[in-house]
Structure formats: C-alpha cells, structure tokens
Amino acid sequence: MMAKVLTEKNISYECIDISRESYDLLRRKKEAALSFKEEFEKEGNGEWFEMLVAQTDYADKSFEDYSKEMARYI
C-alpha cells in the first residue's frame, strides 16, 4: 500500500527485504527461550516463557512458508 502511494506521487524509495533476518532472529529467540525453560519456571515466569514460545511459532515453519505469510520489508 505504501509503495503504491509513493509511486503514484512520484516519490522515489528503496525497499529492503529483511525477511531472512527476521526469520533467523525468531529462530534464535525460540532457541534461547527453550534453553532457559527451567530457569523461567524456577523464577515463577512460566507464563513469560509460554508467551515467548507463542511469539516464535513461525520459527517452526520453513523459511519459504514463513516468507509467504510474514515477509518483512523496510
């Protein structure tokens, strides 16, 4: 939508695909959360752990599937 408006107004812009970086970050976030699961639970932060894992559900998909639904551009 934004690109369409910029084009209609003859405003030049550059678009950078950050989908791979976003996907890799989600995967690392999920790995980190899972590696500290016991610590989260010991500190009474089980709900926080569950939230982190839920936020990273797309990390379980292939990059191809992720990019179809969650492509990121700046």
Description:
65% of the residues lie in helices and 0% in strands. It has one domain (18-70). The protein starts with a helix and ends with a helix. The relative contact order is 0.20. It has 5 helices and no strands. The model has no long low-confidence stretch (mean pLDDT 94). The chain has 74 residues and is an all-alpha fold.
Topology:
Layout: H1 2-8, H2 19-35, H3 37-42, H4 46-55, H5 63-70
Helix pairs in contact: 2-4
Instruction: Report, as a whole number of angstroms, the end-to-end distance.
Output: 13 Å
**Count of the domains:** 1
Which stretches are low in confidence, meaning pLDDT under 50 for 5 or more residues running?
A: none
Helix content: 55-70%
Please tally the helical runs, counting DSSP H or I stretches of 4 or more residues: 5
Based on secondary structure, the structural category is: mainly alpha
Summarize the model shown:
With 74 residues, the chain is mostly helical.
Entry keywords:
about 70 residues; mainly alpha
